[in-house]
Amino acid sequence: MKTTALSRLALLCSALPLAVSANDALNIHTPWVREVPPVADDSAGYMRIENPTDTDRTLVDAESEQFERAEFHESVEQDGLMRMRHHESLEIPAGGEVALEPGGYHLMLIGRRVDALQAGDQVDIRLIFDDGRTLDVSAPVSRDAPNGGDDDGGHHDHH
Questions:
Q1: How do strand 27-34 and strand 134-142 relate by DSSP bridges?
Q2: How far apart are alpha carbons 19 and 53 in whole angstroms?
Q3: pTM
């Protein structure tokens, strides 16, 4: 009986959106990294960054020990073709949010340093803000957006 109750509780918790909170109330919702073929050295990271505070925050860098570098990109349509535009930083407005999602802003993870990532693996990402604070995020690897989120097949703890 206890095992069944614990199983139900675990199932319920797994259905809740994953969120990481920071001291300044930044929230990271539903982080994930796209599963790519084993021959691919690059992938993309997605999440929704919520800033319920009254102060704008600027994300200036990201890093992961599992990749050589991470960059902020935006998928844009230009002359009928989808292209990626590099961004040096991303503004998370006070009381607002920024969505990193397929077909829009995303985190390019470049130069995989580890064995091929498969669904269920985790990618540890450190988000770095202009004030020097950081936020660590653990993002599961998945073929598709979690929780049935839209995925148009686009691009291929504060310290």
A1: parallel
A2: 16
A3: 0.77
